[in-house]
Amino acid sequence: MYQILLYITSILAVHKFEQGFVNHFNYVQNPNLILFLSSTQFRQEEIYIPFQKQFTQVPNVYLNVETLDFEYTFPQGYSLDLHSVGTNGFKVKIVCESTHIFYAVNFNWFAFNDERVQIINNFMITNPQNQYTHFYQKNCQINVALSNFISYYALSSQYNYQTGLILTSESVTISFQFQGIQQFGYQILLSSSDIFLIGPTIISIQPQGSNQVVNFPTGWTIQNCFANLLGFQHDGSENVRFFTNITYSSQVTAGIYPWSSTYIQSMQYNHYCINHAFFELAKFNGLMQSRFLDPNNEIDTHIEIKEISYSQNQILSEEIVIAQTIESISIIFYWQCIDKELLKIQIFCPEQWCTQTNIKCDINKIHTVRLLAKFLLNQNSQNYIKISKTSVSLSATQVIKLSNEYEKLLFKLEKVA
User: Most buried of 237, 296, 301, 349, CB within 10 angstroms?
Assistant: First the structure.
C-alpha cells in the first residue's frame, strides 16, 4: 500500500481573445473616405478599434485581408500598420501608395492575450529580401506557423509568393520570391496545432478563383475559418479586385475570388481555423517545478481535496467539473515512496522536449515526491478533468462533452520499477 495526495487550485479567468471585422476603408461603407476622394500619392487614414472587453495586458494583434479593390495602373500598392496597441484597443493606419483610385481594403483582426500564441510583425520593408529569420520565446506547445501579406508597393508588373515557412524550437524562417516589389510587409503567427488548423498552400491560376475544402481533425467542434492571402501576380492590365469567402454548407470551404473587370494571373493562399473548444496543457516546468521533500517536511499543512489509499487490485476514477469562470488549474500531487521506486512522468505535448522524465525514489533519501502541472482552460465550454488511479499510476485526462465526447490524455505518472 502507498499513498497519493492530490491538491487542485484554480485561478479565475481573464480576457484572452477577441476578433472583429473592419470595412471602414471602403468607399461604399464610408463615402467620405479620403483614400477614395483624393488622388495624392501615399494618402493615408487611420481608425481606432476598441475591444469589447479590456485585456489584463497588451494583447498580440493579427490581421487577415478579406477584400482588395483598387485600380490597376502602376505604381500601385497599399500598406496596413498597427500602432498604439493597448489593453482597451488599437489603431490601424492604411496608406494608398498610388495616385489612382482606391476603392477598398477590408480585413479581419484577432487579439490574443495567451501564452500559446506569439506574433511577429515585420511591416513596410523597403527593398525586401528573399528570406528572414525571427527568434521567438520558446514554448513547448508551439508547433505551427502561419503568415499573412498585408502590404506591398510595385512600380510595374509584379508578383510575390511565399516559398517557405520553417519552424524550429527557437526560430521561424520565412522565404519569398519577388518581382517588381519595392516594399512589402507581413506578420507571422506561432501557436499550437490544437488551437490553429492550417491548410495547404496553393497557387490558383483559374480566372474565376478557387477554394479549398477544410479537413477537420477528430475533436474539432467549432469551425471558425478564414481564407488567407499570401501573394498574387498582376501585370496591370485589369483592376485588382478580389475577396475571400467561407462556406458552411455540406462541407466547409475557404476560397479567394476575383469579381467585375478583373484578371489576376495567379493568387497564392491557404486557410486557417481557430478552435475555441479545448483547454490545453499550458506549461510543465519539469524538474524546475518538482521538489523532493524530506520526510520531516509538514506536507499535511497543504490543503488536499482528497487522500487516496488503495491496494494492488483497486482502480479508482473521478471526474472533476471546472466552472467556466476558471481560467487555469494547477494540479499538485504527492507520491509517498515505499522503497527505491522509479517514477516515469509523461507530459503529452506537441514538441519532443516535453516528453518525459524519470525520478528515482529512495525512502532513505527521498521520502515524498511533489510534482506540479498547470493547465490553461477555455471558457467557451464546460470543462472536465478525469483523474484515474491504479496501483502503479495516476493520470489526468481532458474531457469535452459537446456533440461527441472527446478525451485527451494530458499527463501520466507511472511507477516503472
Answer: 349
